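Lab channel / #folding
Pinned by the channel admin:
"Please post every new chain as: sequence first, then the C-alpha cells as a reply. Keep commentary short and put observations after the output so the thread stays searchable."

First post following the new format, from NK:
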Amino acid sequence: MQEKRWKIREVDEQKVDDLQKSLGINRTLCRLLVLRQIDSFDKAKKFFRPGLNDLYDPLLMKDMDRAVARICAAVRKKEKILIYGDYDVDGTTAVSTMLLYFRHFYPGVEYYIPDRYREGYGISDEGIDFAIREKFDLVIALDCGIRAVGPIARAAESDVDFIVCDHHLPGDQLPPAVAILDPKQPGCTYPFKELSGCGIGLKLVLALIKEWNHPEEWLFELLDLAVVSIAADIVPIIDENRILAHYGLKKINKKPLPGIRQLMRSAQLRPPLNISNIVFGIAPRINAAGRMSDAGDAVRLLIGERKAENEEGARLLNKHNLKRKNHDKNITEDALRQIKEDREYVSRKTTVVYSPDWHKGVVGIVASRLMEHHYRPTIVLTKSNDMIAGSARSVRNFNIHQALRECSELLEKFGGHKYAAGMELRPENLEAFRKRFEEVVSEHISDEDLIPEIAVEAEIRFEEITASFFNILRQFAPFGPSNPNPVFLSRRVKDRGYARIVGDEHLKLSLTQGGYTMEAIAFRQHEKLPLVSNEKYIDICYSLEENEFQGMKSIQLNIKDIKPSE
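Reply from TO:
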C-alpha cells in the first residue's frame, strides 16, 4: 500500500473565534463547523436541526411544471405510464419510489429496467421497442436519459412521450423529451445541483403531492429509499441531501419499508443504522441484483408487502451478493496479477486493464479495489456482446468524466460523474484508447495528485476527547461526501504495551498521551505493528466512534494511518 500524505485543512481562524462566541461550545467543534461552511448561529441551527420544511420548492426546478402537467394529463386520460430506471441502487430505489407513490391512486403504471449485459446503461433500443409495443403513452425515466437523444427521438416518432429525471451531466444536445428534470442542465436555476437520481424522482413526487393535495405522509413513506440512494450513489451529504438523509435514517430506524426490513435482517443489521451500514450492508445487496441477474429482483423486494415474498426476495439478493463477492475477489486478484506482469506500468499515470472473461457486473467495484493498491485514475474493461465496456474510478481532485470527454472520438458512449464513469468502445479501439487516456491524464494530473491524501480537520490532544465533545460530534452525522466523519491528528502518543494483531490483519492498540488513555483499532494495518512496539512515540490520524463490548459503550479511535513521531 502506498504511503499517504497528511494535510491539515486550513480555516479562517477569525470565523472560528466568532462562531465560538456565538455558540459557546468547544473551539475544535467550531473549527469543524467552519470547515463545512457553517459560520453563523442560524447556519449551525439548520445544520444540527435539519427540517423537511427547509426543502426547496420542487417547482423551482426547470421543467417541473411541464412534468407535473403531463402526468396530470396522463392520469386524467387514464393513459399507460412506464417507469424506466437504471439497474443500480440509485435507479432501482428511484423506480420503487415512483411505483409506491402511484400505487396509492393510479393502477395504470408498470416499470422497465434494462438488462445490464444485453442492453447496457441508459435508454436502450429494446426498452423503446417495449414501450412502443405495449402501447405506453408516457415514460418517466429515472437516473438516466439525459444523453439518450436518439432513443427518445425514436419514441417521440411513435407518440411515446418522455419525462427525463436525471442527475448526470448532459451532453452537447438535450433529448427531445416533454420535460427534463436535471439541475445540471443549462438554464436550470434550482438551488441544489447534487441530488441523487432517486432524489430527483422524490422532488417530482413532492410536486405531484402538492398539485393533487395528497397526504404528506405519502412522502414520508419513501424517505428510507431516498437515504439508501444518497448513501449508495456517493452524492454530497449537504443541503437537501443532508435533510433527506437525516429523515431517511429516522424512517429506516423506526419503520422501514418491509423489503428494507428484510434486507437489514439479511445483512444482520440492527437499528440504529448509519450511512456506513447502508453503504456496506444494504446497498451491495440491492446492487447485486442488477450485477448478477435481474435488477427487477431488487424492485420487487423494495415495493413488496407480503412477508413471505420479502423473505424470499431478501434471500435471493443475498445469494446474488455472495456470488458478486466471489467474482469481485477473483477478478481483483487477476487484475493485480496483470498489473504486476506489465513492465511498463511503473512509468504510467493510469491503470487500464482488460480481460474478455471478467464479469461485467463487478468491474466498477474492481476499479475501486485497484485504486486501494495503485492510486491512479483506473479503468477496468471487459467484453460486452460485440463491444468492450467498463467502469472508471478517479483519484482526488481529478475529473475522470472530463478526461473521457477528451477521448470521446474513441468511445461509442460514456457518462458519469467527476470521480466515477462508465464507457463503451469497439474492440479495435482498445489500444488506441489506452494510449490516448494515458496522454490525457498525464497532461492534466500532477504528481501530488497521485499520492493518497488524508484530510485532517483538526489537531487535538486526548484530554479534549470528552463525553460532551463526542456527543456534539455525533450530531454532525449523517456523514458522507462533503460532510465526512472528521479526521483528527494527535502527535507523540504511544502504545501501553498491549498492541496486538486481531482478525489476521487488524491492529488493536491501547494508546496514551499526557496521562490520558484511548483504545484504538487500525483496520488492515497489521504491518504497522513494529512501528508501535517498545512504547515508541507515534503520530496518528483517526476518527472517533462508539464501541460496544459486552454491553459497555466507550469512545474508540478508528485509526486511518500511523507514522513515527519526529
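NK: The first helix runs from residue 13 to 23.
TO: also worth noting, The chain has three domains: 5-10+453-564, 58-319, 342-450.
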